[in-house]
Design goal:
Blueprint lengths: L2 H13 L4 H20 L5 E5 L6 E10 L8 E3 H7 L8 E5 L5 H29 L6 E10 L2 E5 L5 E4 L15 E10 L6 E5 L3 H11 L1 H4 L3 E9 L3 E8 L6 H6 L4 H9 L4 E6 L4 H9 L6 E5 L4 E6 L4 H5 L4 H10 L2 E6 L6 H13 L5 H10 L5 H5 L3 H7 L5 H19 L5
Parallel strand pairs: 2-3, 7-9, 11-12, 14-15
Antiparallel strand pairs: 1-2, 2-4, 5-6, 5-8, 6-7, 8-9, 10-11, 13-14
Helix pairs in contact: 2-4, 5-8, 9-11, 12-13, 15-16
Length: 423
């Protein structure tokens, strides 16, 4: 028994998870390369490792002759019959030809080759383990940082990479810290499997809900959409396929424990659970809650939803830095404009609202929008109803070219919203 080689094989199989036969084949291949280089043209050797004893032997194919002229390619009949009694003259036989120092030379020369092949086998093994796990959540330890990329140690000796765009901007990580992450994809590369991890992906939140809320994992409920600004807030739209199950209540859990567990994993990121509805107006109302909406107008042609609220509800509906409106827009897939009820506006607020609307039109901007409003042109429709000469008459210091440009900009905006203008 080759005890030294046996110890190496046992260690690699037990600690590194590499198949025993793969290890032996790698060593055999490395030793074959050593034999080929050392023997050159002199002798063609075949290396073999006994699978039971792990003894290493080299065999040469030689011709059986009466008198040996070339000891590398010929063997005498008497010597051949000592190992193979039935050997005949002119027959090609394999005979053991292990060099005396082959074990020592082989061990030294083949070390790097063996390690390289074993590492490659480990990489292939890791890819096989992880190739079908995209979409899962895994746990690992932060190993190191490569600029802004976090390298995470996973099970089975695998490494996952979490680049800056997949990190949560409000989170800081430390070496050795245990974190959970979502597997975005797994690709096989020459240097080893590329396991892309994320904590900012919307589906990370989806998977957390599936793990925490049994009604989602068993199909009683379904997540219809997720809008996320990682580290700050997420909106999760859910629907129940069983009228006896309240989707929002099930996600919140008793005393809020289910959603609290998810928020804790997301380091305090706020979660809004929204009741899904096929009715777009109802969905917008649910998503913008607790703000009270006065009116919801839908423009199918431009995929725009205009929400009107009372003045005291405006900031609540829009949210901090516009976050509530943005996430609602992402969740529904439509543009969401939230505005204050004009009837509740004073004169200055109405003027400011009109200026803001016109300023959004490409080709008009803030300065010309203000001049147009104070000249009495409060909307695209009002501007298009005027003649170029009207603009020249009521707007100070405007040139015919500028007046034409403003009218053309309004026409383009109107056409984009309502289609071609009828003659």
């Amino acid at each position: 028994m080759n005890s030294e080689l046996s110890a190496v094989v046992d260690y690699m199989e037990r600690e590194r998870g590499v198949d025993r036969e793969t290890i032996i084949e790698a060593i055999e291949s490395a030793l074959q390369n050593v034999a080929d280089k050392n023997s050159g043209d002199a002798e063609n050797l075949r290396v073999n490792i006994d699978r039971d004893t792990l003894d290493i032997k080299a065999f040469a194919t030689k011709k059986v002759v009466v008198a040996v002229d070339d000891r590398y390619r010929e063997v005498s009949l008497a010597e051949a019959r000592r190992s193979q009694p039935e050997a005949q003259l002119d027959e090609m036989i394999e005979i053991e030809s292990t060099p005396r120092n082959f074990g020592r030379i082989a061990a030294q020369t083949a070390k790097q080759t063996i390690l390289q092949k074993i590492r490659q086998a480990e990489k292939s093994n890791i890819y096989e383990i992880y190739k079908d796990r995209a979409g899962e959540i895994v746990t690992g330890s932060v190993r190191r940082f490569e600029r802004s990329t976090v390298v995470i140690d996973l099970d089975n000796g695998a490494e996952g990479m979490m680049p800056s765009k997949e990190r949560v901007p409000t989170e800081e990580y430390e070496v050795g810290e245990r974190i959970r992450a979502y597997i975005v994809h797994v690709e096989e590369r020459e240097a080893g499997p590329d396991i892309l991890l994320s904590r900012s992906h919307p589906d990370f939140v989806r998977r957390l809900f599936e793990l925490e809320v049994s009604e989602i994992s068993d199909g009683t409920m379904e997540i219809k959409g997720i809008a996320r600004e990682a580290g700050y807030r997420s909106k999760v739209a859910v629907i129940s396929h069983d009228e006896r199950v309240d989707p929002v209540g099930a996600c919140v859990g008793i005393r809020g424990m289910r959603v609290k567990n998810i928020v804790r994993e997301l380091n305090g990121e706020k979660i809004d659970i929204v009741r899904w509805s096929e009715d777009t107006k109802a969905l917008v109302t649910n998503s913008l809650a607790p703000a009270k909406l006065k009116a919801v107008d839908i423009d199918e042609a431009t995929h725009t939803i205009t929400v009107t609220v009372d003045g005291d509800q405006l900031s609540l509906a829009i949210g901090k830095r516009g976050q509530n409106a943005r996430l609602t827009s992402k969740l529904i897939g439509w543009r969401v404009d939230i505005q204050k009820d004009e009837e509740a506006m004073d004169f200055e607020e109405r003027v400011a609202a009109a200026v803001a609307k016109l300023a959004l039109i490409d080709g008009i901007g803030d300065e010309w929008a203000e001049k147009l409003v104070y000249a009495g042109f409060l909307s695209i429709e009002g501007l298009m109803a005027a003649e170029i000469t009207d603009l020249l008459d009521v707007i100070e210091d405007i040139t015919p070219q500028q007046a034409q440009a403003l009218w053309t900009a309004a026409e383009k905006a109107y056409t984009a919203q309502h289609g071609d203008i009828e003659e």
